[in-house]
Write a sequence for this structure.
């Protein structure tokens, strides 16, 4: 747990509940309805990009927790170095890794020494494997004083849509009622996003959404960053991504893994695509 009280008192910062570092786009699962579009994109955010992004945010933003996620964050080869960077940053009070837990027993001692909390999403398809490793994971967490939480996830929400919402009024309604825009701000490849689902949508649907410049803020441009971020976060206008999103208004459905028929159906719509983001 990092104490940022002195920084809060000495300077004005944008305050947000949590900030997500989406360090990996892809995943070792293929969940239907994945809000990060992980079955359709691939690539890692590199360490240098993450270091530069956190350095830029250091003077303008504070949050209660910095969440490391993906995709599946344990797939990133430089995860330990990313955690060192996150730990050294004054931005957050705590560092949290959100994972499906399948690779946790392979993580280094450095990983367990640097993280404050690990949240394991337990799906029906992974329940048996996580149950077999749970006792060992609890021992590791106890040994390193890490808060370990297992969250059972049996349902997903319909969030990403296959076709665009044409109505401007409906897109604005989705945005107005969306909970994600206020608590899951995200960073990837040097850009700051209003919400988690919008991060990978431009890569998933490049022909329709194109570059994601209008749905994010460039963190590598330091001039006026505080004002640009504050205006972006407080804006009441729907994002371009909202045309392919139901926000937090979507209905729930039973969690399951994608089948080949799902992949073919999406491929036919030209949205099965991988994208790398080199530094």
């Amino acid at each position: 747990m990092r104490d940022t009280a002195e920084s809060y008192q000495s300077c004005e910062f944008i305050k947000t509940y949590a900030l997500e570092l989406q360090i990996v786009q892809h995943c070792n699962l293929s969940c239907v309805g994945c809000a990060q579009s992980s079955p359709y994109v691939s690539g890692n955010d590199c360490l240098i990009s993450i270091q530069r992004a956190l350095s830029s945010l250091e003077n303008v933003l504070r949050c209660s927790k910095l969440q490391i996620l993906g995709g599946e964050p344990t797939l990133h080869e430089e995860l330990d170095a990313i955690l060192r960077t996150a730990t050294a940053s004054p931005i957050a009070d705590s560092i949290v890794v959100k994972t499906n837990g399948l690779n946790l027993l392979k993580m280094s001692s450095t990983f367990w020494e640097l993280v404050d909390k690990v949240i394991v999403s337990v799906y029906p398809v992974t329940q048996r494997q996580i149950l077999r490793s749970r006792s060992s994971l609890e021992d590791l967490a106890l040994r390193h004083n890490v808060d370990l939480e297992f969250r059972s996830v049996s349902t997903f929400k319909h969030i990403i849509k296959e076709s665009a919402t044409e109505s401007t009024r409906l897109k604005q309604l989705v945005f107005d009622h969306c909970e994600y825009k206020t608590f899951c701000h995200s960073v990837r490849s040097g850009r700051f996003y209003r919400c988690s689902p919008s991060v990978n949508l431009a890569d998933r649907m490049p022909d329709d959404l194109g570059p994601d410049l209008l749905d994010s803020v460039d963190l590598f441009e330091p001039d006026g960053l505080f004002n640009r971020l504050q205006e972006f976060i407080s804006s009441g206008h729907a994002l371009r991504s909202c045309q392919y999103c139901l926000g937090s208004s979507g209905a729930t459905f039973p969690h399951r893994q994608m089948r080949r028929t799902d992949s073919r159906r999406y491929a036919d719509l030209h949205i099965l695509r991988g994208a790398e983001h080199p530094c």
About this structure: The radius of gyration is 18 Å. Confidence is low (pLDDT under 50) at residues 1-10, 264-278. Residues 127-143 form the longest helix (17 residues). Strands lie at 14-22, 61-69, 92-99, 117-122, 147-152, 155-157, 185-188, 191-193, 216-218, 252-254.
